[in-house]
């Protein structure tokens, strides 16, 4: 008989209510916790917001106090599986081998290179461990070395708002140039003159990517030339370079349309030319190969097709089909080499790598040898190469880096993620199941569990999903997950609509006015697992984050009886308010995903599923909700308001906890190990509810 964890008798915080009307189209919609957004608005209740979040954190700490030792054990266990002194597989680019390495006890890493040979003397380009000293949060991104290998640009964010300062380091002297650029997206691209840097400038308030600017080394960044200004707030923009290094490329894309501009990289002072003006509901992506551009597009092709066009005739009228649209295969992307083309495809929910010799048109697929897995092209910066670097993993196979010789078809395992302390994949089993949704569609489910785990109604099971933006949740290994599996949990991924696992239509059927398919699929997967006796509602847990947190909020409202507990990470739960407020970061970028509530039909549909709007006086499951004060993607006040309203309405005595990381944002803690404390809290929450680990908890 499992002994239940004894939850302390503590009184949860009660948030103040202040009437605030947020409805439209004649709809009365009072948001009594609207004041919680005052921290970033610098409104009159800014201090009260911090007080409330701290009170919720204190309540969570009190309620979970009996699990403190267990959390410490879980943290040590998960940290102990990570090889602290480690090194990435070196990547060759423009005469140098680049890699990162980590030292024992350090949270970050060192970015290094060796010239010509791995036997050469190491250059430490950035010691991020030292750079991060004194910062509760630190993110260094966008490492970008100039064509002559003498300079490196990179971005730094010390707040977790994804607003980066660009720095430029002289790799010969080790000194930093006086040039400092803020705010940016963190990435940049060099012109071939080694003196010109293109970057994405962001709006400090909305955080949107608005302008591509050109910076000349040694000049005042406040006078940088705007080479592109995106007027449509629903588009994301960025700047990069074709793999051939011949063209600078500006990309502007929304959910359903895109546009590219190109410039000869040898002429960075020149004018960018539009590749093909944006067309409604047409997405395209480009890269350069020899005397042509290659284009991946959904124009007249639901699952995308591959086109080509001469370098001097880029308009759509000149595009010629190379690989046609196929109803059963999604063409996800390409990787271009001088003599080869690598096409990433998705068939029956699984990724495939298709290799084509562009001179002979001979083709083959890389053989992976497992029924359920994830495989994708890795870092392949060298255009003049016949080797493909790819990454392979599955629910039981740790992340593995391979080099594949495209001519001989030989593959070489360069590195497999080491699980310190030992790990035997033969001790675990995986399954691929299909749940029948209420409209007859078959939804894939990937499962993993330890072979000693007995499948029954008493078996605890964690069901995870995302289901938005066409992001596919592929089966991949996690060493932290072993702490669940080794204690008898089954872990399952529901590949629900809104993702793209089963092709583009899978995504189309889980967005806009079909968004409820996402929630129904998840519920139907849960009911299938219960029906097949993999678990029962008394032992079933659900987890999702960000847009997957919206999923958690929706299923908590729709079927609260199905779950023993729900974990909602940085959840997007107040859909209507957020989508009505264009001053909130990223709102306008999302109209093609959720709809624009200024249109009554979109407003009504969003409100019909928005978790915040559909809270009722009824019983809810046990819930743990996490957020970050500096979150730029889903602002902290959404989960905070949601928890406050849940507290005011729920009629049960189940546990409801809110944990706010006061020093981080959407991705949580920045260090190599600190994020494990957040996972330990989540695991301890489930084990406390399950009761099975109570002897360890004490």
Automatic annotation (TrEMBL):
GO terms for molecular function: serine-type endopeptidase activity. Residues 15-25 have a biased composition (Basic and acidic residues). GO terms for biological process: proteolysis. The keyword Cell division does not apply. Residues 1-25 are annotated as: Disordered. SUPFAM superfamilies: alpha/beta-Hydrolases, Peptidase/esterase 'gauge' domain. It comes from the Bacteria. Keywords: Hydrolase, Protease, Serine protease. Belongs to the peptidase S9A family. Cleaves peptide bonds on the C-terminal side of prolyl residues within peptides that are up to approximately 30 amino acids long. Has an absolute requirement for an X-Pro bond in the trans configuration immediately preceding the Pro-Y scissible bond. This is Proline-specific endopeptidase. It comes from Dyadobacter sp. 676.
